[in-house]
Amino acid sequence: MAQWQELLKLDSALQNRVRQLYDGRFPTEIRNQLSHWIESQDWSSAAVNENAAAACFCALLQHLEEQWHRSVQENSILQGPDFPRMRAYIVENFQAQPLNLAAILSECLKEEKQILESVTMTMGGSPVVMAPQWTELDNRVMQLKLQLLELKKEVKVLEDLSEKLDFIRNSWQSKVEQKVELVQSKALVEQECLKMARSISQTKQVVLQRLVSVLNEAAGSVQTLTGVELPQWRRRQQRSCIGSPEDAGLDLLEKWFTAVAEVLLGVGEQLQQLQVQNQRFPTPDFPGLTDSMAEMEKFSRRLTRNLLTSALVVEKQPVMQNLPQRPLILKTGVRFKVTVRFLVNLPAFKTLIKVKPVFDKDVEEVKTISGFRQFDFSRDDAKVLDVDLSSGALTAAFEHLSLKEKKSRVKGSCESQLTVTEELHIIRFVTQLQHNGETFHIQASSLPLVVVSSSNQVPSAWAAIMWSNMASGADSENLSLFLDPPGLTWQQLAPLLSWQFLSVGQRPLDQDQLSMLQAKIMGDPGDPGDPDGLIHWNKFSKDESVWIWIDGILDLIKKFVWELWRDGCIMGFVSKERTRSLLREKPVGTFLIRFSESILDGAITFSWVEQSAGGKRIHAVEPYTKKELSVLSLPNAIYNYTLATSGRSHNPLVYLYPDTPKDAAFARYRAAEPSPPSKNTKHYIPWEIAPFSM
């Protein structure tokens, strides 16, 4: 569908932004009427090539002429658009400067596209407007680009006026010298030149005011991007690395970084042009003009440096292929990948920036923590930032990195103050950018990571990664955090735990499940605990192995019951006492599925209500471990479960709590039963695995 047609579907606020693009520059009536034709032309190429611009100008006039003749033939002159008036407007405003026409349409088409891209599409295809603060920033950046366009036009007008005045003065003087009768008109010419000089002074004043305005607006945008939006993105990425579902995309940030950089570089170009003009056509009315422009250029360069040195980010944090849901855990000798991205995505920077990763660069902990391990990359690896074919982003993907430990510790050296999984490290990505005679030293850093030597250390390492990211800000590089680890509140820990279940089973923890975990981790409300209500690192990860138990359950869900967890069939975290309370009032045969509280490696069981001589009783089957679930799926175990009592056998499981019939809850999950051995079976009765209790 044509771009203009997509714009017509937007709400009035966004359509007003489009209208502002064209206001005073090009009629939206022509843009609307010739939308398909305008979008079919290569205005970007025409904007930098006079011959191409002239060809597009002539083609536009011809197209308008054809549309007019078509209206005449169809007898729709009164009903249709006024094509002759449109043609007259184009001739009057752009015949002398077809490059200006191409530049306007090229810029407007690009801005239209960016407005469309700023509208995120939901799965159903309905447009959703950006968050209010992002919409405001987007408008500011767009207005900044429009101000730059106006500045370019004013500088061009100033240049034309100065050249015209210089020409008149020089040519008239030579004519006066040749013809005496022209002396009488000299006074009139000088008077006209004086008026033109005043106009130049006024235009120069407007240009200077515009420059100050653009630079002040750019300074505000740079501060917002580097001081607010970028840290907020880092925090979103930090949380997404530990399971949060929030969006950590960079497209909007890249759009704004690139646009502001274009403006600052454009301001630099205009300042250079003004300096050249001032040398050719000095203005006595502005004795301090040179100094003012030098100060503005200095300010512009400082803003550009601030923006460019903040533009390199780690888009995808270090991650091993076998642990895609647990980034920031690396194992010596095992390949991992990481991607960096440069947010100022300009063609001038393509293949110009070479990025090199350096492990633990400038890390003080190497000197201050005894026994701190040191690592290096197995091989030198540097990448040049280039355009990613799928996203168009300026990135460098390091896909074959691996670590080796430096054998710097000698026998008898003091033991490390930290365990292997509490020792945090970092990767720096360093580069230099040379542009416009300046050198920019640019650096980006990964989030703190853990290096393990055994797969058995992964659960503890992940606990450390989660803890450090919840306890520290995104810009914190406190690699010695676990020398004195801060506590977390339950309000911090609860969402963190919930994200883990969302990651592996596509379903977060509900409030009842979180309450059970809170009691298990912090104790009952009446129990003595930390007076500040904090959960301490040792209690969570070491002393009582709470995390190891939770991690075992996560592994069980991931490998065997993730669909059941996703669909809410598993209540999971419910104590024995709570189980009795829930089932006691339910019909006989009602059952619920919960995780074992005693098996650290993860196990699952089901409890049901049974009628006995003394009334209702609550029973629970011995928990199924991962070993048993590897040969018998939980749905099959539920269907085939047999209880033998008083000489009879039956399946006591009828309703999944609270009242869902077993077939409705589990039929779609049942797997084919394991096949009996195939050799020499004709004389034997086939067997099958069946859970059985007596």
UniProtKB/TrEMBL annotation:
Any one Gene Ontology molecular-function term assigned to this protein's record: DNA-binding transcription factor activity
Keyword Ligase: no
Primary localization class, coarse: cytoplasm
Name the UniProt record assigns to this protein: Signal transducer and activator of transcription
InterPro entries, sorted: p53-like_TF_DNA-bd_sf (IPR008967), SH2 (IPR000980), SH2_dom_sf (IPR036860), STAT (IPR001217), STAT_linker (IPR048988), STAT_N_sf (IPR036535), STAT_TF_alpha (IPR013800), STAT_TF_CC (IPR015988)
A single BP term in Gene Ontology: signal transduction
Coiled-coil residue windows: 134-161
